[in-house]
Amino acid sequence: MLTVEREWLIHGIGEVEGEPPFIENPDETFVAIAHASPRPSMGGGAVVTEDHDTPGRAYHFRRSWIKGSLKASPSQLRIMHVEGDSMAPTLLDGDTILVDMTRRAPNPPGIFVLDDGMGLVAKRLEHVPNSDPPAVRVISDNGFYSPYERSAEEIHIIGRIRWFAREI
């Protein structure tokens, strides 16, 4: 026979006070964010090909957080996974990111997914003041990788990274 202390591990914790954790209408509370299959590199750049693997499962977030805090439209957000070490310690290999595809200006500076002309990457971007033609500085958080500059015409910003998660 199980001890009372171990029984809750198998059968639940018994009576719970307060509001039940079940939501009557989850579709009104949560919104699905599509998963995009390309994996931005944090290093040399991922090459995006048409025969890339199929998208993964959608992630669900509170609708109120997406609308209120991010001030974003769920249809313009994508979940991606990143690869490499150039953004360590901020982002690590395998982290999950939420990309807002409406935020494509590197002002204010931030971390973006972009095609830098060599592939799809996740990097910190900042506008280079008084540059003609307009330019951005592409920065890795890992000091092993040197920053570089690109003209605004040489890159294609996919969107700003607004959230990330990692498995521990």
Low-confidence stretches: 47-53
Q: Order of strands in the sheet with the most strands? A: 4-6-11-7-8-9-10
Please state roughly what percent of the residues sit in beta strands, choosing from under 5%, 5-15%, 15-25%, 25-35%, 35-45% or over 45%.
25-35%
Annotated CATH homologous superfamily: Umud Fragment, subunit A
Number of domain modules: 1
Shape: elongated
What is the CATH C-level name? Mainly Beta
Plain-language structure description:
The chain has helices at 4-11, 26-29, 63-69, and strands spanning 30-33, 41-42, 59-62, 77-81, 83-84, 96-100, 110-115, 120-128, 135-139, 148-151, 156-165. Strand 8 (120-128) and strand 9 (135-139) form a beta hairpin. It contains 3 helices and 11 strands. A 7-stranded antiparallel beta sheet has the order 4-6-11-7-8-9-10, with no helix packed on it. The chain has one domain (25-165): Umud Fragment, subunit A, CATH 2.10.109.10. The longest helix has 8 residues, at 4-11. With 168 residues, the protein is mainly beta. The relative contact order is 0.18. The radius of gyration is 20 Å and the shape is elongated. Helix content is 11%, strand content 33%.
